[in-house]
Design a protein that fits this description.
Layout lengths: L2 E7 L3 E6 L4 E6 L2 E4 L4 E4 L3 H18 L6 E4 L4 E5 L2 E2 L2 E8 L3 H6 L6 E11 L8 E2 L1 H6 L5 H24 L2 E12 L5 E4 L7 E5 L13 H4 L5 H18 L7
Antiparallel strand pairs: 1-2, 2-3, 3-7, 4-5, 6-7, 8-12, 9-10, 9-12, 10-11, 12-13, 12-14
Helix pairs in contact: 1-6
Length: 250
Amino acid sequence: MEKLEKLYEGKAKQLYATDDPEVLWVEYKNSATAGDGEKKEDFAGKGRLNNLITTLIFDLLKKRGIDSHLVARVGETSQLVKKVTMFPLEIVLRNTAAGHFCSRLGVEEGIELKEPVLEYFLKNDDLHDPFVNDDDLVALGVCTREDLAEITPLARRINEALIEIFAKIGIKLVDFKIEMGRTPDGTLLLADEITPDSCRLWDQRDGSGKVEHLDKDLFRRDLGDIIPAYEEVESRLAELAKSEGIEVAE
């Protein structure tokens, strides 16, 4: 499939048209950003790792009955995806208190939540992606009640599946953000990416209970190099995928 003109460039990815109007070409970048893009740095190999990790996670989710817009990984930093109409919405699931949740509500980081918390944030850089509720979304025309009646249970299913996937490889899924969109026939799909950029992942393998970050908090908080952590996540996911009969890129 041929890559054509660039349609969009974000903080972590570039999006291109292809010779198939229903398929887009995604290129993962090596850049990492934090604080609404105020902090930025390039890390050699990050784009390749995030492409691999997203592909592995989407394939593992598909095994569990959850479809995404992924068509195929086609290069070290590139993948083909179905063209969907995206909701301008960050969908966040929290299983353990961390990050913005703690600063907003005065909660100690690391506290296990009594049940997963589902939150919505409007994708708007100028407003720093504000927190919104269901009524806000409907009133602003971002989505309908019918949309939310599909988005909410799908988000919770994804959370349950990801908790199980990461638990199998000795990682606690603290929280994550995802995006969704609709295909031309109206099917709701998981879209965008799932990577250590968009999840908080705490290593559990040594059993010490000490928080060992395997995610972008290493960059956000100046705790260390993200690349070894991302490599570790990719390696563990690849082993799990192989054990489930999923073809894995070498």
